[in-house]
Fold:
Amino acid sequence: MRPGMRQLAFSLRARLTIWYTLVLAAILLAYAGGVYAFLRQNLYRELDRRLHDEFEAAEASLERRADGTVIRVVTRDAHTHEEDAPGGRRLEVWSLEGARLYREGPERPALPPPVGAPSSTEETETVRVEPGTILRVRCGTYPIGGTPVLIRVARSEMGVRHELTEFSVGMALGLPAAVLLACLGGYFLAGRALKPVGQMAARARSITAERLEERLPIENPDDELGQLGTVFNGTLARLERSFESLRRFTSDAAHELRTPLTALRSVGEVALRERRSNPAYREVIASMLEEVDRLSRLVDTLLTLSRSDSGLVDIGAQRLDLSQFARETVDDMAVLADEKRQRMTVESEPDVYVDVDPGLLRQALGNILDNAIRHSPEDVPIHVSVYRILADGSDRAVLEVIDQGPGIEVAHQRRIFERFYRVDRARSREDGGVGLGLSIAQWAVQANGGSIELESQPGEGSTFRIQLPLVRQVAHA
Ligand code: ADP
Structure:
């Protein structure tokens, strides 16, 4: 795992650097190419402009003498020193028949004589006169003394070429150096940017089921890695919570199972200690069966909870008339209430229909009614009310169980739906409760898309309110 992670970080770092370097090199190359083209164009434009000026000056200053030769009537300007340099400034005048009439500038290397028919327009071209000497030549016909002649002005192109070569050499040396530097810088920066990944990986490796309270280090919660770390930490927090509740559930369940088992064992051991009469044995067996009963109820409940946790319970939704359903469930529980001479009344609105799993909802309502009966004093009535709330977009069916029992303290109200939570542990066990009834009721209601809430005033009683999505349109059965 460790070398794998390192290789991953390295390859990501290398890949980032390579991409960065390639893109930068391409940009620099394009930029250098653009500058080269711009420089070349400017240098040649300047050279051509000078040739053009000189051509015009030559046109204006050339004269034909009576013997047919051509002379220049202006004194030469400050270019004298250039003319003697190889490839320096030149001026030549040729007759259209191919005879040179006038020449200025260095003799060698000589410009080749003009070839082909002279063009009517002025033309500029590059002529390689000998290795190491390249001239830029402007040539055109112009009438002198009534006869057209071919005028050629030329200047060395070597200066321009030299500048361009210098620029290219500078770029050829500078560009790879710049790219190399950028590559090193990119590698360093990518390493810095990816450092938190390595730290996160190291910390994540050390997190085990026993150390779920640890979190990934986050340098900057707003950048991409920070967001990833935050999401991962959120997942860890949820995992920690569910591990914790699983641990609590397991230890609570074990604890609850131990009590009836201990009772079973001690009843058995005491019975075996001395010989007893048959009726006495029967009594022992009956008491043991009572504990077994309690055990199997508890195991059933635990099974229900574990199935609910794993999402294995099929919710078979059916359309129910909630009022009729409440009445039937209350009737089923009447035997228990009768034992305490509690009267159970149902008040209901018509047409309160819901789509629910009847078995699950019966379990929820049964647990709430069972609590109300157990916790309410004798002779005190319990009231069940069914009605609907019509609100735009969220019509609800409501089922309330109202008792006049001892009520529940605010401190307990928040935790009453937690698994194994009991207000009075000792008393609750006496009447068979292990603190799972309400958590099962809550799960059963939520599985049907509803919610359950408690309203209670200590000393005045409690109201458990189940809300379910109301079905407005009633299908005819
Ligand atoms: P149990 O099965 O032990 O009754 P429940 O989850 O059903 O567990 O209830 C949790 C606790 O809530 C009980 O210990 C009890 O003290 C309290 N309780 C539940 N219903 C009522 C009620 N109607 N009136 C007063 N206390 C109640």
